[in-house]
Amino acid sequence: MGNSLGKRFTITSFGESHGRCVGVIIDGCPAGLAISEQEIQKEVDRRRPGDGPASTSRAEADRVEVLSGIYEGRTTGAPIGLLIWNQDVDSSQYLKERYLPRPGHADFTAYTKYGGFNDFRGGGRFSGRITATFVMAGAVARKLLGTIGVEIVAHTVAIGGIKARAKQVEEVKANAGSNTLRCADPEAAEEMLRAIEKARTEGDSLGGVIECIALNVPAGLGEPVFDTLEGDLSRAMFAIPAVKGVEFGSGFSAAEKRGSESNDPFTIRDGSIVTLTNNAGGILGGISNGMPIIVRVAVKPTPSIAREQETVDMEKMVPATLATRGRHDACIVPRAVPVVEAIMAVTLCDFAIRAGLVPEVII
Amino acid sequence: MGNSLGKRFTITSFGESHGRCVGVIIDGCPAGLAISEQEIQKEVDRRRPGDGPASTSRAEADRVEVLSGIYEGRTTGAPIGLLIWNQDVDSSQYLKERYLPRPGHADFTAYTKYGGFNDFRGGGRFSGRITATFVMAGAVARKLLGTIGVEIVAHTVAIGGIKARAKQVEEVKANAGSNTLRCADPEAAEEMLRAIEKARTEGDSLGGVIECIALNVPAGLGEPVFDTLEGDLSRAMFAIPAVKGVEFGSGFSAAEKRGSESNDPFTIRDGSIVTLTNNAGGILGGISNGMPIIVRVAVKPTPSIAREQETVDMEKMVPATLATRGRHDACIVPRAVPVVEAIMAVTLCDFAIRAGLVPEVII
Amino acid sequence: MGNSLGKRFTITSFGESHGRCVGVIIDGCPAGLAISEQEIQKEVDRRRPGDGPASTSRAEADRVEVLSGIYEGRTTGAPIGLLIWNQDVDSSQYLKERYLPRPGHADFTAYTKYGGFNDFRGGGRFSGRITATFVMAGAVARKLLGTIGVEIVAHTVAIGGIKARAKQVEEVKANAGSNTLRCADPEAAEEMLRAIEKARTEGDSLGGVIECIALNVPAGLGEPVFDTLEGDLSRAMFAIPAVKGVEFGSGFSAAEKRGSESNDPFTIRDGSIVTLTNNAGGILGGISNGMPIIVRVAVKPTPSIAREQETVDMEKMVPATLATRGRHDACIVPRAVPVVEAIMAVTLCDFAIRAGLVPEVII
Amino acid sequence: MGNSLGKRFTITSFGESHGRCVGVIIDGCPAGLAISEQEIQKEVDRRRPGDGPASTSRAEADRVEVLSGIYEGRTTGAPIGLLIWNQDVDSSQYLKERYLPRPGHADFTAYTKYGGFNDFRGGGRFSGRITATFVMAGAVARKLLGTIGVEIVAHTVAIGGIKARAKQVEEVKANAGSNTLRCADPEAAEEMLRAIEKARTEGDSLGGVIECIALNVPAGLGEPVFDTLEGDLSRAMFAIPAVKGVEFGSGFSAAEKRGSESNDPFTIRDGSIVTLTNNAGGILGGISNGMPIIVRVAVKPTPSIAREQETVDMEKMVPATLATRGRHDACIVPRAVPVVEAIMAVTLCDFAIRAGLVPEVII
């Protein structure tokens, strides 16, 4: 259960890391949206491992196939099926260590919840590979949001404690794609790269923080008190493996401020009500206020590390040790950047449709 | 829209700050649960303003009335209706400032979304008062969780940048109720109190951080990939006004750790698999692992402050200034502690029922 | 569970027949809709027992109270709480016969499902009285549908096997309110009345068939393949106690026709595509086609009869007999007519909002 | 929107008649259920056109492929993806008649709702072919229901006004598969066959009625007042193209009975409470009572007929005529029988899981 997201733009994810495929069904996409396999492919390619030190060596073609819902280059109003066949899969290591849960991974909880029947190979449903299904759906959502002018950009703001300096949105948009870490601060990126390389050499891994900004989001999105913009966005972000914290605007640092510092004063600009600052991250009372939506997610270091770790043999119920020998990223943060964008896109799409901002037919 | 929470234990909140009442309907509570009006009242009383410097002077009796769903002292399986009539309401100030949105509040977004038809008095649906409906539902959820041994305790861990020292769970349980700030570190509490008093004197307000711990939660709760325990808990926490960040276990600090530090090694204790540390906050892959669930929420300083602030007149579309003169807390963090517990209880209840851990009839 | 209906216009029903009250929360009603307590009251009054032979002698004031969601005469966008306090309740008979399930009633299934903890007095949640909550919600839905021109009328088309002659819609609208049976064929109504009187005298009861017509429903409502207009309407109709069948357009008689008779030919009228006949009942492929929506529901005879019936004592597990002595209608069909209208209104409202036909703010 | 069914056992259907494939994702199936591709294939084969006069000449292999969610012969708890690639597709006729809606079909409403962007070829999402996705899901549901002893059988009870004589359940189980019409009354089946042959010869089509019986359904399934067993079953049945009516137990004929005839008296048999008759169709107050669940659905004659029919050209907005020349069944009723069973299985599965009758892991 729990593999669908969204109320009016609903995505259903399926597939496993080492199974036949990973895929997603999108239900609720308006008809008439022009979108090509290539556009979706392009987003998926952004999630692929790069050449840098941060990356895994698994070389996947990850070719997107459209199964349904698109005809003559446009969405039909029917469910859109998107699929990637798995390739280059080596499950031998997983078969050997089936009963040795990797610390920090879902191996133990999946085993417990599904009585050992879960497809554990490569982490199964809990693999980072599943986020490719989010990215496919995100590509469609993004195209749809484009029809109402919404833009989304995410970037790496910290890795292993090294923080990027704050940048203006325009700079973020211009620079985030300029390096393999997707960090808008090139100097910090250099330092982060060195830290990742060091961690990798030591058989270890690093986490980080990703910030995502959505621009031109109309005021009025969000459905308090429970279906708030913050609530639904955070819930969706936690679907990304390794995310352990989500904050909006000033977030946790707001807790250290005074009201007079934290409140964003209102003013009028070009005939519209705007705020002078954006500590709220574009959301007041769970509803968008027209300012940029700003969310940050904390990504824990990838739990798969080469160092030996203590675990237990779940079958024999005895202590054991484990050293992950599979192919793994020393830092998954850069690869998670397009995933965070995808989750933002899917969630905003859903809210925009709920609010009646996107018609049933796009012309 | 958006006033219901939960899939199998569903609460629907209604009512406004200065309307006739606030109330909640609970659907999905198993039949046979023994619960009295007094038990629910007791939880609601914990949310009331105290005598300390942190509190508003609005004196509400807040008497809980059971409308339906309980017969002969036990739940019947039918929807449980719970209601508090509003009293002691003075809306004059709000009527005067109807078109002057308070910075940091939902006044502007509510006005925009609902076309000015929203009941703005006292913040209407966006008032902290609405959390009384969460607490009523939480009291029932808590009682139900008690039947499977789950315990929940929350406490203030920071106010205005002053941090409580880390305490063992037992100490938290023992001390959290010992002071008006619900802080398990009495020395920090003293300091926090002084900071609040200072802020109040200066017409300002303070935020803080609340930690909530759930004990004895069975392994296996959570429904990845989207209905994760973290995701649903965070979504629900953002229903609490002023919450701007949510993290689990090490949370944002995990982003600064290495995998070897962050991973919780497994071991066997009393025949069960446990982890030696709990950086995961009791959740791996979105599923509970049997360790204590640990969540922290960042509460921004209450936006209602006595200081003059810049705003706009939404009707005349001209700049304006505003100084909140209503009765307000200089720091709402302590009053939010039982609300955080209630949200935790409602969410865990829902997951426990989904997982089949709670039967349709309690005997 | 199961006490909410609708995805974007959601009603949550609560309360019991002999408890404190019955009520409903409406979530998702757009802001700005002008509606008064009196308008809701008027619909509720239509459901009240009349003076005719068909009716119960329970004399309830059934005064509607607005708890929330309406301010200055207009909906605010917040949940609308509506409540009727119960009065004139005599539960003594029910207390005596607590363990004797009435044949044809929900007493046995409720006892089984809720382990005997259900509030059985007067049928509790399973009483026809609960439909007053549907009618309150229906009054709001109807007002909202009025803003897009949709009209709804239901009428009795059969009672105890006596069938009303088919009438044109205009005649139905004109005549359905002219007699206590809400039958548009006055002659059939006379005959029905005699049949009801006869059944009552013999300690028995009669069922019947209600037809409901919705006019001016725009083409395009319905969300195949599962959330069809027929599917969602029928599901909602089965919430009315005693309904055992639902059909659209030609319904069951379509099964006896040939395709050439059953298909409705298309033609152009006033620049729009219409059908020459309406065997489809206004729905093709689960989507409205712009013709009148026509649904008929089969209402079984009210199970509460004065005649002695065989049952069992659920506590002692021995055979028993039972003769209902409470106040009961010999035929509930006429009182169910406004309930069917309410269910139609609520369901169409939900679809209209889903399709973006009703804005978030009514001006 | 609307392509998912079920709350805890959720199926999401996708694909089009003349697109690449039809498929279904099942979310919420417990882990550990042993099921093979062959078992699913077997159910799908039952839906295929037979050799009789009732059938289309489209010869599809319809080979089921498992995409995900099954590992080592057992369900894993992850979403189960099932797919059939389309073959033998000739869309030329549809391309020619793109703007000529077939009377009785969804062509017009789909065109209207989706602005002409819908994949109209072969009816697209509105084709009977989509029911293959229900049957795949039904095969899994059925296997799961088998673990708690529930059995399901459907049969043709009427075609073109020719009614099968009532049969005992055991006879239905024994005979329903003995002829191509899936009719338990062989004599009536003969007559039906002749009627179908006659209709086909005359370029026409016939409808009919299917009855479905579920045995050994435990008492207590159903969630009143809105999520009743009748309501959810009927809603799901209307997803089958051409269904225009649904009734339970005595159904519409109950409306002609008296309470004393319609009520099912309770008695005790083998220590359990049962009813002497089953006019209720196994459902009281929306909850199963332990007796067989009995539902009947009215299937209108297939709208695709060879006879010339009046329609309009939607592009040119002028009258037109149309004679369906594609391959079509003269009577789809027999092929719909396994589809009705599948819908029953999926719905009961969902209720059984909601009620906690099926554990998260099957051992």
Pick out its properties.
homotetramer, 363 residues, alpha+beta, Chorismate synthase, AroC fold, five-stranded antiparallel sheet
Q: How does this model look, in words?
A:
4 copies of one chain form a homotetramer. By secondary structure, the first copy, chain A, is α+β, with helices and mostly antiparallel strands. Chain A has a single domain, classed as Chorismate synthase AroC (Chorismate synthase, AroC fold), CATH 3.60.150.10. In chain A, 27% of the residues lie in helices and 23% in strands. The first copy, chain A, has 9 helices and 18 strands. The first copy, chain A, has helices at 37-47, 92-96, 107-113, 131-146, 169-175, 186-201, 229-237, 259-262, 333-354; strands at residues 4-5, 10-15, 21-27, 64-68, 70-71, 74-75, 80-85, 151-159, 162-163, 208-215, 243-248, 266-269, 272-275, 283-284, 287-288, 293-299, 309-313, 318-322. In chain A, the strands form 6 sheets. Chain A has a 5-stranded antiparallel sheet, covered by helices on one side. Chain A has a 5-stranded antiparallel sheet with strand order 9-8-10-16-11. A two-stranded antiparallel ribbon of chain A has the order 5-6. The longest helix of chain A is centred in the C-terminal third of the chain and has 22 residues, at 333-354. Chain A is globular. Chains A and B meet through β1, α3, α7, β11 and α8 of A and β1, α3, α7, β11 and α8 of B. β11 of chain C pairs antiparallel with β11 of chain D.
Structural class of chain A: alpha+beta
CATH class of chain A: Alpha Beta
- Kindly state the number of beta strands of chain A: 18
Share in helix of chain A = 25-40%
Radius of gyration of chain A: 21 Å
Low-confidence stretches of chain A: none
CATH architecture classification name of chain A: 4-Layer Sandwich
Query: Helical segment tally of chain A?
Result: 9
Major β-sheet profile of chain A: 5 strands, antiparallel
